[in-house]
Here is the input.
Amino acid sequence: MQTVTLSNGLTLPALGIGTWAWGDSIFWSYGKDYNTDNLHDAFKAAIAAGVNFFDTAEIYGFGESERLLGTFMQGTDQPVQVATKYFPLPWRFFKDAVADTLTASLKRLQVPSIALYQVHWPFDFFMGQPTLMEALAEEVKQGRIQAIGVSNYSAEQMQRAYDLLAQQDIPLAVNQMQYSLLARQIETNGVMQVAKERDVAILAYSPLAQGLLTGKYTPESDTSPLGARRIDPRFKKEGLKKIEPLLQTLQEIGNAHDKTVAQVSLNWLVMQGNVIPIPGAKNAKQAEQNAGSLGWSLSSEEVERIGAVSVGM
Here is the structure.
């Protein structure tokens, strides 16, 4: 299994599983086209394939994602590494809010500690970043979290968090950002540059663009997504036609490696160097397909070709 070592020394698989869809029936279609049994199968398939890193958040399914993951972990004797997130709500303006929120997450996950704790959004409100980072650093020192991360932080906000944690002699380990062949903004807005300079890994959420980079949805297909994605113009015929050249390129390269469009898309991200994709998995087949993006590599020419086609999409 390919791995990535974070700046604090924590080693993670080079790919994880994002669990936004686990227990979420608002944006996703939990309870309609997939259920708890399907998610449990996805969990077991990921573990069997060596992908034992799962990213969740207290807000996913209003805690249901953490509860499901916690229940699934009770049924395995294999090691599981968990990342979850703290949401900086306006009324959380005392330092104790971080400890209390983490305690609630650990209870739902049924574990005493986790690998990674991230700030979900760079909101300041009344607590402020200095107090927030100090509270997170205390949790590292107490052993309830191994590493600290942020999510959706700009280059400047990430640098600020990095500097504040450095005052506590603790590195900033990750910045979780939307990153895929159809969302490459971090390459030009400074986030990727600062991350590489400061040895901060990028956890790439929506690495398959919510399914657009799987090849499942085409202009000719009658298949349409459930949930909130139904109203996303990218899934309409015009949007799908726009990305056809990219999907064709991914298919051609995938055929050469005996890999799927999704596996090529994920491998392209892994090849960027400091990126850990965290695609979702709602069933065993998706979890197995995700794992198939590791253990092989695109050539530098293929990486460049794919990147050139995806620019501006």
Observations:
- DSSP finds eleven helices and ten strands in the chain.
